[in-house]
Each structure stands twice: as C-alpha cells, then as structure tokens.
Design goal:
The complex is a heterodimer of chains A (336) and B (279).
Chain A (H helix, E strand, L loop, with lengths): L2 H13 L1 H19 L7 H19 L3 H23 L4 H20 L4 H4 L5 E2 L3 H6 L7 E3 L2 E3 L1 H26 L1 H11 L1 H6 L4 H27 L1 E2 L6 H14 L6 H23 L21 H19 L8 H5 L4
Antiparallel strand pairs in A: 1-4, 2-3
Chain B lengths: L20 E12 L2 E12 L3 E5 L6 H8 L7 E6 L2 E2 L5 H6 L2 E3 L12 H8 L8 H5 L1 H21 L15 H14 L4 E5 L7 H16 L3 E5 L3 H7 L2 E6 L2 E6 L1 H5 L2 H8 L12
Parallel strand pairs in B: 3-8, 3-9, 6-7, 7-8
Antiparallel strand pairs in B: 1-2, 1-4, 4-5, 9-10
Helix pairs in contact in B: 3-6, 5-6
Classes of the chains: A mainly alpha (336), B alpha/beta (279).
Amino acid sequence: MNWGLILSNSVYTAISANAIAYMLVATGLNVHFGYTGLLNFGQAGFAAIGAYSLSIPISRFNWPWPCAVLLVIVSAVALALLLGFTTLRLRADYLAIVTIAVAEIIRLSLNSVRFTWLTGGNDGLQGFTSFMEKLNPFPQQGIWLWKQKIDGYRLWLLVSGWVLLMVVATLVYLLMRSPWGRVLRSIREDEDAARSLGKNVFAYKLQSLMIGGAIGAIGGVWLVLDKQSSQPGDFATTFTFFSYTIIILGGVARVKGPVIGTMIFLFVIQFVDISLQQATKTTPSDPTPLLPTWLIDQNNYAQLRFMVAGFALAALVVFRPQGIFGDKREQAFDVH
Amino acid sequence: MSTDTSAVPFESVPGSQKPDAILVVDNVTRSFGGLTAVNVAHLEIPRHRITALIGPNGAGKTTLFNLLTGFDEPDTGEWKFNGLSLGGVAAHKVARRGMVRTFQLTKALSRMTIIDNMRLGARDQRGESVWRGIIRPIWASQEQDITQKAEDLLERFNLAHMRDELAGSLSGGQRKLLEMARALMVEPEMVMLDEPMAGVNPALKQSLLQHIKVLRDEGRTVLFVEHDMDMVREISDWIIVMAQGEVIAEGTFEDVGSNSKVVDAYLGSHHDVDLGDHT
C-alpha cells in the first residue's frame, strides 16, 4: 500500500477544480433548498445549461469567451424563469417533479442524435478550453502536491476556481445575512406567513431560483473546464443527489456547508476507492493481493466505494443529523 | 365586564349600515364543489371597533377570512377596504394596504429567532431588495430602527426575555402573542385574528384580551373569529354571526344571544339555552 500516494491523491481530489465544481453546484442548491426551501431536484440541469452555454458557442461558433460566459448566466436565468413561472405558484412537490423532469429533458436532448451537429451527442464537445489555457499564468509542468502531480492547467483552474468560489460564497453570505435573506428563510418556514406580512413570495422565490441556478451553471462550467470535454453523462440526476448529500453533510443553510461537505464527500469516496484499488492490486513480483480474492478483487472493488461512502453518510445522519456546521437547535423544530 | 353598547348605534340586522365602515363586502360567494362555503350578500365592518365573527363549525368564517385577505379567490363578489376595491388583489398587497391577518394554526417561523420573526414584519425595508441587501450600510440604520421597534413590541407582549430564542421553542400561547406582535410590525389599520384564543391557557388569555383591547385603543380596527364565548362577550363591540356561509345576525352580545336564529344555528331549533353558557 502506497499511503503517501493514497493520501495526497485523496486530498487533491477534495480540493481540485472538479471539487470546486461540486462546491459551486451545491452552493446554488443550498440557496434553493437550504435557504428558501425550494425542493429543486434539477440542479444538474442548471449545471448542464451552464456547461453547454460555454462549450457550444466556443467550439461550434468561435465566440469570444467573455460572450460565452455571459451566455452561461443568461441561459441559467432563463431556465430559472421558465421553471419559476410554470411551477412556483404550485405546491412545493410540483417543483420537485418538474425540475427533475426538466433536468432529464435537458440531458437527453444534449445526448440526442438529432442535435449531434450542435452538442456532439454522446461524445460531447471538446476544444473550448483554449481561452483558459491562454490565460494560464502557471508553467505547464505544474507542481507536486506531495506525491500527486498537478499540471499547470489544472493548477490554474484550481487557483482561479477557489478565488471564484470565495467571491460567490461571500456574496451568498452577504445576501443571506441581509433582510433579503431573512425573507427567503421566512418563505422556507412558512410562505403564507411571509405573504400575510406583505412579502411578495413569488418574486423572492424567482430571485432565489435565478441566483442559485446561475451559481449552479458556473459550477457546470468548472466541471467541463476541468474535464476539457462536456458530455451529457456528467449531468445525470446523480449529480443533483450528490449535491443534496453534500449540503446535508456540510450543514444545510450554512455558507461553509457545501464547501466542507464536498471536501468530505469526495475525500471519503476517493480514499476508499484507491485504498481498495491498491489492496486488490497484483503485480508480477507480488501475485497475492492484500485482500483475499474470495472477499474482493480488482473487478468489483469499484462498487464498494459508494457502499462505504453510503455507510459513512448514514452514520453521520444518525449521529450528527444537523451536518458538520448545522445548528442543532434548528434540527429540533423541523416543521416539514 | 361588559362593553358600552350605547356607543354602538348600529342597527342589529344582518348587513346593517355603519357610518364610515372600514370594510364593505358585497355578494361574496365561494363554493367548494357543491358546497357553498361562503355566501355573504352585504356586510360592513365598523371602524375603530372590535368585531367578533362567530358561528358554528363549518359556518365559513375562516373561508371568509381567507377571501378577504387574498388567500383564496371568491367565485363572485366585491369588497372594499377604505373605499378601495380588494377583489383580485394578492395577499401580500392586501397586507401592505393595511389589513393584516393571523392564522388559526399559528404560523410562527420556527427555525428563526423571535427577533427575526418580528423584524420580518416591518414594511418597506431597503435591505429586502437583492442588490441593496448585499451592501449593509444601505440598510443598517433602518435595521436598527426596526429592531428597536420590534424590541418595544416584544416588551409589550412579554416576550422580550425570549428575544434570541428560536420561535419553535415557544408555547402555543406565546406563539399567538408572537404572531399578533409580528402583525403589528406591519402597522396595520385593521387586524384580522383567526381564533386568537385557540389552545391558549387561561392565564395567558387575560393578557391576550388586554392586548386586543389595546389594539382598538391605538385606533386600529379588529375583526376576529372565535369560539370562546367568554372572550367574545368580554371584548367585542359588535358581533357578526355566520351559519352555513351566510350572515344570519348582527348586533351586540345581548342582541345576538337572544336572537332565535342564532340559538337555532348553534343548538338546533328545539333548544332554549343561553348562548353564553355554551362555549
């Protein structure tokens, strides 16, 4: 077992550009679900819209990148408006149903053969990251994080991503401590009460959906910038469910929640994954793996990581239901 | 204790005219499937008075409340608050016009502190706009004033010691107090209380009654739904009785207590019992 590699790789996974993508997507979802109580099950749809609003204009139509970035925000807001005007006046569960359906429609459309000329279908789109490579101030050889190599491009994504994340988190923090954030929380608690006190609940929900959706779209952008390829498969419903896991893990309605939640979630999964990979590995010089093959071997360890991660999460929910940063008092009065 | 009935010179008939009525309702109907829940031909609520809306279960009192405050839409009808039509006006705009309601099942915002519950009620907050909310200096001074006002009201409603607790930790009666205090943050001209006494222990009841009287003394109009007849007798200036969606009687407590239609509605037509004893 190469513990140095396992640890440094797991740590890198928890702070990488890929992790930042999860943090952003979960931060957006936290605005919806954590602060406003909107049961959005289609956050992956916002991420997909963001990712393809960047990759399609750049790789298909050679747009300058600032225009594509602008389109990312515009289309996320447009999707929020579409979802909002159709469902926000209805009861909360309808939003859940519609959002999950819309996210799947988006993913399947991106995957569809009919739109391959535009979206690249199942193979997705590549070659839209050259602007980010040009902006990269770091040397190509990159650095070593103990035993984990980080190439120059990924280092640049990591550093700029953390700066972006800090800006987004600060904005969310400022918003949520303001009277505006107070109205959002009142809607989460009881929207009729908010209405009876003269608050335009619909307008606030729409704003929440737009802001959280835009943050989610930026998360999608970071995901595909890291992969240097945007593919529909990355935006399946599991992405949304992982985001829920992350915010519950970190603490709902806490700005730090999605960040810490992502780190723990990705660290645990990666740690289990490569530990098992190492423990089942055979080499010509050492043909017996660390773990007995009747128990586990190289062909089936991959499934185990989610089982172990699932157990870890279940234990956390049982022993610390408010999440890492949640307020225990709030858990006691769960009104829903 | 009885109220000074001579100060209330309105006619004791359903739909009677009141000079300077704050709320005038005309032909408001609402049916759910085949059931007509509300069918009010004409109703006027007197200004600066405490009016009780009573009636047996299923009389349509809460439905009428919901209709008047914009929480439900009527099938037909018009109603005017301060001379301005409120038909089709959204609930939050009704509140902004000065008509604020509370709920039968108290809606304390459980996972928010008491003081935040109160602050939420304040009108025209600069920080409630998304752009201005980001920049604290824009709303900080207003927030201070709001907090001061909220603390004064909490003092008045004996909740000041709970200021930073979560509203979910309050007892049922305290929640009623909080809801009333929070409604006052909106500075309403008219307060609509849906069963303010439900689930309140006797010790708190007296203080709640006093609080409602103070509302009137401050120059507000109060309309409340209530089943507790002792309370109705003690604080109401005027009483409106509904049964099966219609207004069947109006008058002082004595007037409606002796009205045979009211007795019939509550007890069936073969009983002759004082309404006040049956609460």
